[in-house]
Q: What sequence folds into this?
């Protein structure tokens, strides 16, 4: 067994034994540094296994983050994993942002045991394929493999509903007709004396219609004034 394989097995076992987020994060950082070195010296085998260790440590971080949600109450308070720290504290101490921790948690799979097993099997298949093809694994590739396996087990997540824009209240045809008529009477650029003199026979009919319109206009003004007062009162 080569020294490289021995080192690979040691780091893989160390990842599996990590009980705290900061422990797994430390191994991930070491593997990432070794992977960068492997690229520089063009050691493809070293680059492949260090990329795998880095991803395994990432998955382990996700598992530990997921376990922080499963705190159990005890007679002395709440028993927390990861050294008794709260989730936010453990994530922060490991130098991770909440969004990064969430992405790592997705790699570990959901809490459903069947889906977790499917995700683990997909991850192992992905790692084996990467080793066989001498191709370093990537976060994107691993995430796609786990995601497909989880969706095949649980089904795809429901589509997100787009927020519906609030609809404008419907305007009745009566209101449209009435306000248009009032606006026309109020703003039409006409000389009332001239058009009154142009009226043909039946002037009495138009006079009666105008008299009928006058109290309706007055009532309209009063209703609008009431509305203005009620709006101001409710705003206060």
A:
């Amino acid at each position: 067994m080569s020294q490289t394989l021995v080192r690979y097995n040691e780091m893989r076992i160390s990842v599996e034994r990590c009980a705290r987020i900061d422990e797994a994060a430390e191994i991930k950082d070491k593997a990432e540094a070794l992977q960068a070195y492997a690229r520089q010296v063009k050691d493809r085998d070293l680059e492949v296994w260090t990329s795998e260790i880095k991803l395994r440590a990432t998955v382990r971080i996700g598992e530990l983050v997921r376990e922080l949600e499963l705190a159990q109450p005890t007679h002395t308070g709440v028993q927390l994993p990861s050294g008794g720290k709260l989730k936010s504290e453990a994530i922060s101490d490991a130098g991770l942002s909440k969004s990064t921790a969430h992405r790592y948690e997705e790699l570990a799979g959901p809490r459903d045991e069947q889906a977790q097993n499917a995700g683990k099997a997909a991850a192992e298949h992905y790692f084996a394929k990467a080793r066989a093809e001498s191709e370093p694994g990537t976060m994107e590739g691993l995430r796609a493999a786990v995601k497909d396996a989880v969706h095949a087990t649980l089904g795809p997540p429901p589509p997100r509903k787009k927020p519906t824009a609030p609809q404008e209240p419907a305007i009745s045809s009566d209101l449209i007709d009435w306000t248009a008529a009032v606006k026309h009477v109020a703003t039409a650029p006409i000389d009332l004396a001239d058009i009154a003199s142009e009226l043909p026979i039946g002037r009495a009919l138009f006079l009666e219609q105008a008299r009928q319109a006058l109290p309706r206009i007055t009532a309209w003004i009063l209703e609008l004034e009431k509305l203005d007062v009620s709006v101001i009162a409710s705003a206060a």
